[in-house]
Amino acid sequence: MPQQSNDAGNEISDFEKQRLANIAERDALLKKLTQEAQSSGLFTQSLPKGSLGNTPKPKKKPPPKKIKEEEPPAPRRTSSRLRGIAAESEVAKRKADEEYENALQDQRAKRIRRPDSFTFDDMVVWGQKLTGDSLIGVDVVTKGVAKPYGRTFSDADVKETTDKDLKALREEMSGLQLWDTWEPNRADPCVLFESILLTSSAGIKITPERIYCMAFHPSESKPLIFAGDKMGHLGVLDASQQKQVSGVKTEDDDEEEDDPDPEITTLKPHTRTISSMFIHPLKPTHLYTSSYDSSIREMDLAKTTSVEKWAPSSTSIDESVSSIDMAADDPNLLCWTTLDGAFGRYDLRSPREDTASWQLSEKKIGGFSLYPSHPHYVATASLDRTMKLWDLRKLSHSDPTPVGEHESRLSVSHAAFNSVGQIVTSSYDDSLKIYDFGPKGIDSWDVGHTLSDKDMSPSTIVRHNCQTGRWVTILRPQWQMNPQSHIQRFCIANMNRFVDIYSGAGDQLAQLGGDGVTAVPAVAVFHRSKNWVVGGTASGKVCLWK
């Protein structure tokens, strides 16, 4: 049977024709758009595969990479040890552990007190003896968030004072001037510290770390200042010195005259924070310092030597001393408190075994003081939020009972007695409380006398910001022990970068500041009799007003 032609099957349908026309139109449009984009620099890629025109040839697939056979994993350290092979990582780890432990032991050793006797050469960190062979000279041998620089007491308050005596005292205290013999912006050749004169604030740097305590020497011939810092350094500054220019400047000489640095001395008698210091007016050649390294040392200022006078029986016993004081009529009776809440008393002429001790608080006693005229009365301030008054004449060692106590809302930082029977405390409840026991007959109380809660209430409460935070030393009030008038006065730092001075009645007498004082002079102390006030900052600097 003859084969028939199948022309109908070879014909392209209308639908297929239309599809091919659409494809051709699309390819033409894409080619045109691509050429326009290429001419304008916007598109440089070739046309997609399957389009009309120059279709790129498909690239051949690269041959598959040969996978190298991996070596079997190295045995673990346990396997190395089992096979008797010393792994280098184990040796390195043991060496690192040993070095770390040695570093810890070195740090512990630095914090352990040193019971040795020190000479000047043993203690000196920077500086020199101030005059001759003696460190102090022959004349002595014989509230809320703080608003920086915002004054809370001004000249207007002084002018508006109606009380004649109070106004005269306010004018006198407000007239104290910042000691600025040396400019604060000067560079210093000392390479031990970053600079002796801090470039950002007034004052002179005499310790490398934050100042924790300060004291004036009782001499009235010159302001001699001692400061103890966080790391056990003791700075000494004679603030009576003046600039001594050496060399003569001629008209043809463009160089400035020499401007020498102030003479200071920095020693290191302790291994940890110096918490307190005291110079007895009947023994002015000896400085007593207490420390968190559990020791109390006596420095002979004339010989520049330091001797340990009290410490626990073993260097492994930690009894950090928080504060010291001495009886006004006995330069050999030493008293102190500890961070564990204990109170100690020791006669320097007796063996150390004769030390008397009382556990007065379960928490830290931050500060205390003796009543100058009757040193058997002791005022303590504690972390347990109380100020307590004690009578050492009849005080049980097993169950000590105070004469009276007053509780604040928050912890009490310090309690300071003055010569007329007043106690001032600073507390974290942002208050200064003044207790007046003179009119209540403290000078004539019998042994066993007690006070009611009403009698222990403060006579005056002054609002004062005491929120020092972490980097500022706790604010503690300090009385002028021998004021040259009948008005009692004390000083305390102000978080606004001032030092405030108050009377025993709670009236503010002055607010001391000055150009360049950009840090809080947190540690503020009065001279015993002269109207000199000094403040110490967290940078180890002192600011003096006189």
UniProtKB/TrEMBL annotation:
Q: Signal sequence span per UniProt? A: none
* Keyword DNA damage included in the entry's annotation: yes
Q: Give the matching Pfam families.
A: WD40 (PF00400)
State the Gene Ontology terms under molecular function: DNA binding
User: From start to end residue, where is composition biased (Acidic residues)?
Assistant: 251-262
Determine the domain of life of the protein's source: Eukaryota
Task: Spell out the residue ranges making up region: Disordered.
Answer: 39-100, 238-265
Question: Which residues fall in a compositionally biased region of kind Polar residues?
Answer: 39-54
User: Per the UniProt entry, what are the Gene Ontology biological process annotations, in alphabetical order?
Assistant: DNA damage response; regulation of DNA damage checkpoint
Concerning InterPro entries, the annotation shows: WD40/YVTN_repeat-like_dom_sf, WD40_repeat_CS, WD40_repeat_dom_sf, WD40_rpt, WD_repeat_DNA-damage-binding
Membrane-crossing segments per the record = none
Q: Which UniProt keywords apply?
A: DNA damage, DNA-binding, Repeat, WD repeat
Gene3D superfamilies, alphabetically?
YVTN repeat-like/Quinoprotein amine dehydrogenase
Q: Which family does it belong to?
A: Belongs to the WD repeat DDB2/WDR76 family.
Task: Describe its function.
Answer: DNA-binding protein that binds to both single- and double-stranded DNA. Binds preferentially to UV-damaged DNA. May be involved in DNA-metabolic processes.
Name of the molecule in the record: DNA damage-binding protein CMR1
UniProt source species = Aspergillus sclerotialis
